């Protein structure tokens, strides 16, 4: 099995919640709602226009260059440690972007399958190619996850929106949710020098309040690295995030940059 086929028995119809099954180039629920597989190999279950904050192809290219450079290897390591020892199971990444973190986790778990979910079609195209054991769908996390109840052992949410009710619904009884958010020090030098949008300082409290209302908070750790980055990499770091929408000036000099994230683990309440 590869690509979308790995999602057999996992997807739910966005209209009625019934189980979706593949029949040729389309997926159907028992009531007859039907969704065609895009020629790039993903399934569009969103059924509406992309919101303004969906990642663009240019943002995804920049993100892929940064991730391929290994700069965020410390995040991959932290996720791997927090995901636990399970060999297999279903791993869902919400707001998956390129599918980089999901692909890494699935690769290191030989019988695992992955589901990449993103509201951006450009992201879904990329994630569909990220790993043979990853299925890729377009969906809006705020309109409900097109996933059956209690079907997910590990749910990743890395710099992406969080829907507490839906995370709790799709999580298996022994599953865990891993949430990565930027700490206040993340990219502090770039924010200072390039006037980037600030990182909201109350974000961690808000995370604990919103997800903590539906899930049990188990652990919180911070992970940092400092790297000297060339101008092209600085441009990519800026261009892969929300600041891409505000076009700051191109970087001219190499700079020491701090990357700092918080990883929170939640389990079933
Ligand atoms: C900052 S990027 C992070 C991508 C990836 N997790 C990573 O760290 O490389 C946020 C992602 O969330 C997606 N996103 C934004 N709003 C969303 C929504 N309502 N539903 C699903 N995905 C969404 C964006 O398209 C983008 O790919
Ligand atoms: Zn249906």
What would you note in describing this structure?
The chain has about 270 residues and is of the alpha/beta class. It has a single domain, classed as Rossmann fold (3-Layer(aba) Sandwich). The chain contains eight helices and eleven strands. The strands form two sheets. An eight-stranded mixed beta sheet has the order 4-7-6-5-8-9-11-10, with helices on both faces. The protein has a three-stranded antiparallel beta sheet with strand order 1-2-3, with no helix packed on it. Helix 5 links the parallel strand 8 and strand 9 (about 170-180). Helix 1 crosses helix 8. The longest helix is centred in the first third of the chain and has 12 residues, at about 55-70. The chain binds S-adenosylmethionine and zinc ion. Zinc ion binds near residues 15 and 33.
Task: From the structure above, extract its key features.
single chain; 269 residues; alpha/beta; Rossmann fold; 8-stranded mixed sheet; 3-stranded antiparallel sheet; 29% strand; globular; binds S-adenosylmethionine; binds zinc ion
As a whole number of angstroms, the C-alpha radius of gyration is 18 Å
The order of strands across the largest sheet is: 4-7-6-5-8-9-11-10
- The proportion of residues in beta strands is 25-35%
Distance, first to last CA? 34 Å
Count of DSSP H/I helices? 8
Question: Which CATH class is shown?
Answer: Alpha Beta
